[in-house]
Design a protein that fits this description.
The structure holds 2 protein chains of 2 kinds.
Chain A lengths: L8 H40 L11 H18 L5
Helix pairs in contact in A: 1-2
Chain B lengths: L3 H31 L3 E5 L1 E3 L5 E3 L1 E2 L3 E2 L1 E5 H6 L4 E3 L10 H19 L9 H29 L5 H6 L2 H18 L19 H22 L10 H16 L11 H25 L17 H18 L12
Antiparallel strand pairs in B: 1-6, 1-7, 2-3, 4-5
The chains are: A mainly alpha, B mainly alpha.
């Protein structure tokens, strides 16, 4: 026999909305996590300037490049290319 | 018959490379003016409590003396720069790449040279603002390094080579200024989050993962410079730029003008690296790339990532990243 479950129109709509909301929250959460992950080396490089010897250790040029990474990331995120 | 688009790209390429050469030549002259065996030290004076304090003009420009390195070490002076701290001639293939990317973005992307130079006045003003801001910011970083750390070699510790800080700052500022609308740059329209393609999140994560793997492999194979630990960031920027221009899904890489663009990027990078190795050979290593040296090729990681990014920018600017065929005009 066909044991199909009937779902009302209302609960389907409600499920769809809940899923969409959850996806939005997940997206924001991933962005926040990415930001935190990326800021670890940036903050580390800022705190560590001058701790190494000549040409070793982290430096401001590294901080600039993490800044560039952020710029390219944001640019990619908000671009609408194919 | 060479198309106008190709001609424009070539013009932008030549002019930006010439400007990058001037940029690096100026810094190389600064390096040479120190003289072998000498260092530049920051001038200090005694205050009324007989303590040394550093003298700065405008808060960021140090008063500099050139003294023999032995004297500086004996007197325990703060060294502003050693020969090579400005342009980094030993790895100029790498520092030049950063300058080349900056000038191509300034001239080709921001100014629209030579094809689309509307808003020229505002954009020249934007370039001037970026120039002043990047120089001031980098000098401020150098002063912060002097004040807040115990390093004895200021520029070397702050930037590796000053050229890297200056040109990376230049790209950063022009990107931010053009985003803020300086020069009325018609930046890409922002789209609501609900319309974002889900693959972008995946692409961003994957670019970080791939960059991490590349960095690890190059470092394990002794193909990364031990001092300049910026490989990860440059590889990540390069991959994000690639996904932005050519798409994340591999099937998109074969659409329209894109196969030619990818071939152009790869061949341009290979040709550039060959030219730099030839330059290194001809100058006996005085101007080098840290490739094929006695201690291996530690510069390969940065040479590849930087020049791939440069040629990616060129292929994008020349329209070769378009997913539809562009008809000649």
């Amino acid at each position: 026999m066909d044991q199909r479950r009937e779902i009302s129109e209302h609960s389907l709509l409600s499920l769809e909305r809940q899923t969409a909301r959850l996806i939005e929250i997940l997206k924001v959460a991933v962005i926040v996590i990415l930001t935190v992950l990326l800021s670890i080396p940036v903050i580390g490089s800022l705190l560590g300037v001058g701790r190494g010897g000549h040409y070793t250790g982290s430096a401001w040029s590294g901080a600039w490049l993490y800044g560039l990474l952020a710029v390219y990331t944001v640019n990619y995120w908000w671009s609408n290319v194919e | 018959m060479i198309s106008k688009r190709v001609l424009n790209t070539l013009m932008a390429l030549i002019i930006s490379l010439a400007l990058a050469t001037a940029n690096l030549a100026g810094l190389y002259y600064l390096d040479k003016s120190i003289g072998q065996g000498n260092v530049q030290v920051i001038q200090t004076a005694l205050d009324i409590n007989a303590r040394n304090f550093t003298q700065w003009s405008l808060g960021v420009i140090p008063n500099i003396n050139t003294v023999p390195a032995a004297v500086a070490e004996q007197e325990n002076m703060r060294v502003w720069a050693q020969p090579g701290d400005y342009a980094g001639p030993a790895v100029m293939g790498i520092t030049f790449a950063m300058a080349a990317i900056m000038w191509f973005i300034w001239i080709g992307y921001y100014l629209g040279f030579p094809g689309n130079m509307v808003f020229i006045k505002q954009r020249l003003l934007g370039l001037l603002a970026a120039l002043v801001l990047t120089i001031l910011t980098n000098l401020m970083f150098a002063r912060m390094t002097t004040e807040f750390t115990s390093t004895n070699t200021v520029l070397g510790a702050a930037f590796g080579h000053l050229s890297l800080g200056l040109n990376a700052g230049g790209i950063w500022f022009i990107a931010v200024l053009s985003r803020l609308g300086v020069g009325q740059h018609e930046s890409r329209p922002t789209i609501p989050v609900s319309q974002l393609k889900d693959e972008k999140l995946s692409a961003l994560l994957m670019s970080l993962v791939i960059a991490f793997v590349f960095e690890g492999v190059f470092r394990k194979a002794n193909l990364a410079l031990p001092g300049l630990s910026i490989d990860f960031a440059v590889w990540a920027v390069t991959f994000i730029a690639f996904f932005n221009y050519y798409g994340y899904i591999p099937s998109k890489w074969f659409k329209g003008e894109r196969p030619f663009g990818i071939v152009l990027t790869v061949c341009g990078t290979a040709a550039t690296i060959i030219i730099w190795v030839v330059i290194q050979h001809l100058t006996g290593g005085a101007i080098g790339t840290a490739l094929l040296t006695a201690s291996g090729s530690p510069g390969l990681s940065l040479m590849l990532s930087f020049w791939l990014l440069f040629w990616l920018s060129v292929s994008n600017q020349s329209g070769k990243s378009s997913p539809v065929r562009i008809t000649r005009y």
